[in-house]
Amino acid sequence: MSRIGNIYTESYSKSSAAISADGELSEMIREEIVDRIEEPASMTKECVADLIYAGSSYGQKAGFESGFNYAIALIFESLVN
After folding, report:
1. pLDDT tier, 1 (very low <50, low <70, confident <90, very high otherwise)
2. How far is residue 45's CA from residue 58's CA, in Å, rounded to a whole number?
């Protein structure tokens, strides 16, 4: 695992900011699923693929935003100290 991966695993992923962001992401994905599913039995492969794509897109966006914010905070902290 890379240093960045270790920093994420040991520091950020256990922080209240990460836990909060994870909860917000889960809620966004849940809302997307609820908005799109009317009758689960009638869902097509394409509909399921769209849901998976939407969920992964939300995850990528949220991951980028939280990673960027964390990187800026680390840079700022190292410049101040």
Report:
1. low
2. 20
